[in-house]
Write a structure and sequence with these properties.
The structure is a homotetramer of 318-residue chains. The first copy, chain A, has 318 residues and is an alpha/beta fold. Chain A is built from 5 helices and 17 strands. In chain A, the strands form 2 sheets. In chain A, strands 14-15-16-13-9-12-11-10-17 form a 9-stranded mixed beta sheet. An 8-stranded mixed beta sheet of chain A has the order 2-3-4-1-5-8-7-6, covered by helices on one side. Chain A is globular, with a radius of gyration of 18 Å. Chains A, B, C, D: Keywords: Dioxygenase, Metal-binding, Oxidoreductase.
């Protein structure tokens, strides 16, 4: 049975990424992902991918240590915003209302049990392409850049968390998320959980932080239009000295075609293509993978590189 | 502002296709689309594509004239089913409750203003792969066939309608659909309208029937996993003597990558790939294309073949 | 039986393209094809695609009328150059020896029976990437640009000719070319002929000029790495206001996956991908297509747009 | 300077593969590669991929131990066959003339220095599609199967060899092959060498056998039409329980996009797509990779799985 609050969160809105290599990270996102810089403010720039309908989806901020800053989710309506804010407040994790940045309106701030800073909001400014750069198709936010990996839109955030289940319960209870898939270890512990809020298969993911730390990031992901964008992206990253960690492969879990790289600040960035996979069933039953099933390998049966299970940002004793 | 009933319909469930060339049409769907036959009953077979989560999505029925039979939409819950049935009944287009076929439960039957037979339902049996043909991935309904055009799932139905606007108003009012895009002629008339019920950009479409007929079909569509499936599909159709009408191209409207063919019964079948495009915005504003904008061509600026604007099933004075 | 001079010509070397819109054409080739400008001289620039091993393959020249200038073929050796020069001289079409441009050595100039200016040469300077732009892979000429249609290398030239057969006989007799495919009309006339000089299926093509003119160009073509480059190229061209004439489709003849556009000067440019097709057989028998076979349509059975049979450069009564 | 005998060998003709799991291997090649069985004889079947122009390219033979049997190369002419036979005979490695199988004419048998059985021939029967299965395109050998990995043609053989340089010298001197790329260790030893005979970048490869054995196989490869065939092939192999060893990735050396699997008999099979890469230069200079360059990783900088450097057939102390 569907979570009765499902739909109150519409989708992942924007992410703040902290980087210790600001200039190089900025080059990475604008040149290799072909994102447009829509604003600069203090130590941050605000970035937009060509199919993002909102004004920005990535805030890139210079910081002594790389990692993830605030992650914001857009609600389905003003009423949904009030409902979710009340539900979060009831958990004791609420911080309070504030004004959003760069066209984002009233936002309710909170932290998940792992301490990651989060917000929800409804009001938002839609992206407007500059007058001298209107796209050929009026149903498209920005001009099709056709360069680099040509990132289409922000797709999801994958947190590391000390206690996956506790974080997941919060996402389900306070935000109305539903787990589409999860991994359960032989100990009974859930070691990873994928949450969705709409027909897309996931927007927020938690993976167990094997270092026992809190507040860390596994990766953020951008959707590409096609699998070929990911293959060509690998050529582009090789040519530009970006470390490719893994892929292009297709995950067993969620069947996402992927490539993982480290942006110059060390944050892992995924490029993901779900093909035509959608969660259309209103009564989807969470797919659970056992430890044994995971041991078969996750990418067409092949083993995952070890750093995938250890590297996170900020770095902890790597 | 979002339609307050949006979400009551979860998605397009299944379609009945009538064919005057039953044996050849059956070969087309099972051999060239790689659909599985899950049941046969009377003059019909019930078919399933590898990612359809329900037991069947296509009912193929021998008939003197080709065309579209009953189209059924699944609701988001039992309550949503009751709400929509009541709303339809209030329009005077309701027919009444009946039992669904092949695992589909209680269904409410009605017609749209154009006379197309439709139903809504919630209870449904999920597809179970045969014991000797379980897929390698437990998050997938059926084995990956890897042959023909490898159709992934039923995607949408595109009706021809005498009065697009009247039909569209019904879809919006009675079913909670929202128009993501539409064409408005210089006369002010809406000549085509695309409706969605979830994050997918459309499930039901109406195009003006230039013959002035009612109850006809423009096409039904299947989603393929990738654009390359569509390119390879063109090779497969050429090799097997299937008439390719148009494509592979990318529509300006909805940006769908497509191929149109006529199945042996004469019904137009589309193979569609939306890339990573999703309607995530809860406040999406209908994109309206003018007659002049349409005249620029719809596929990368190229002109559409004339039969696309005339051919429908059942045939009327072609 | 193989033409005994086959192999004396190694491949198409470079092409001069005349354009009445020099600045716009230059933008087209450098920005949308991602070619590198290696030199400028008088009214011309010299351009290089990332996998061209020679210093340049396209000379773009400002001119009152668009069309094709000199086309040069590289021989397999110095001895082969002497042999072919002698053979051409014997036909009476020889013009004489001259020095090549931009690193190309001693060249023998001549015209084909249609009057197109041509040359053969052996000595050539290999492309050297600038010191600050060395490719990541040492087996690649230049950095992988990853933008626009990402043209990989010059592929072929397709001339219009008043008398296809006469031109073809010259290519076979004087240059050792072999026709891999051809079209023969019901009248017995050959209306198009594809010639190759190595395992690639064609480097030089003649199509009948329906205007009865001489010296005109149907198109020049660039190879892309993949079919997806061509699909993405269509998006790029649409976004940048370039007229797409036809495609992306797969030709029946030669099975080339193609897209035809007009560069700003009006010259037709093809982007071509042959997949893994190669002419490996030393005793390949010319494939002949009849008028009836052609009438079935050339792109997956679909009809070709009429301009494809009329538009050429320089324009003649279009 | 080009090897003066280059061109005497036209291309790799056919390979005999020995398998200890004959029935399963036969299923692998006919069902998953979509090859056609053209003949059966004794313990062998003869197989054809849809673009192979000759009658067969793979002879599959039941055998106690898996591995590679006879590999045959087709010459460019009868005269070339005589020249090469004489050159081989002069090395003392000739065995003598015999009749080929299944339409292959007079063949000269020999062994390479490592002891692998080889042959050269010119006369050959072209593949004829059965009357009830003629392809839609007359320039194609067989119907386009559109299933499984849809192997287009036999591409190359990669031997393991005790002494790469000795074997390579033989290929160059006796057969006129040219090394397009090679790896040289810090010791000065060549550890792998890629030989070509036409515009394709390689047909025969030697890699050092780290077990010190002789006569073993690293892999044989089939060309697929597109990179997407390889991605879909990975899905097909996963679904059918075939061990995927590595890929889909793009090799640094030769830039081949690849997937390696073990067929049921344990022989490694590669699926390879070279994109539009061709060796057109008549004076190509062998690209040499140092040990340090190799250590950077071969697939977009990623490390190769260890079995790639140890597994061969017949197996030796794995």
């Amino acid at each position: 049975m569907r979570n009765s609050s499902f739909g109150d969160i519409a989708h992942l809105g924007h992410v703040e990424l902290l980087t210790s290599e600001f200039d190089k990270s900025r080059w990475f996102f604008t040149e290799l992902l072909a994102m447009r810089e829509v604003a600069a403010e203090g130590d941050s720039v605000f970035l937009h991918a060509w199919d993002d309908y909102e004004r920005y989806t990535l805030k890139l901020t210079a910081s002594p240590a790389s990692g993830v800053g605030r992650v914001a989710l857009r609600t389905g309506s003003q009423e949904a915003l009030e409902r979710r804010a009340a539900a979060i407040e009831a958990t004791g994790r609420g911080i309070g209302w504030k004004d959003g940045e760069q066209g984002v309106g009233r936002s309710y701030a909170f932290t998940d049990p792992d301490g990651h800073p989060m917000e929800i909001y409804y009001d938002t400014e839609w992206f407007q392409a500059p007058d001298d750069a209107k796209p050929a198709l009026k149903n498209q936010a920005d001009k099709y850049p056709g360069r680099g990996i040509n990132a289409r839109r922000l797709d999801h955030v994958n947190y590391l968390g000390k206690d996956v289940e506790e974080n997941g319960t919060f996402i389900a209870d306070a935000l109305g998320g539903e787990a589409t898939e999860q991994i359960r270890l032989n100990t009974g512990q859930i070691s990873a959980q994928w949450f969705h809020f709409n027909s897309k298969s996931y927007d927020v993911v938690y993976s167990a932080d094997n270092t026992g730390s809190t507040g860390r990031l596994h990766h953020i992901a951008f959707a590409t239009d096609t699998r070929e964008d990911i293959l060509k992206g690998a050529d582009v990253f090789l040519e530009n000295g970006i470390h490719i960690e893994s892929g292009p492969h297709k995950h067993a879990i969620q069947q996402t075609f992927f490539l993982y790289v480290y942006e110059p600040g060390g944050n892992r960035i995924e490029f993901a293509n779900a093909g035509a996979r959608l969660m259309l069933a209103p009564d989807w039953k969470t797919i659970e993978w056992t430890e044994a099933e995971r041991a078969k390998g996750q990418a067409w049966g092949m083993k995952t590189i070890s750093t995938f299970h250890t590297h996170g940002t900020p770095p902890v004793g790597e």
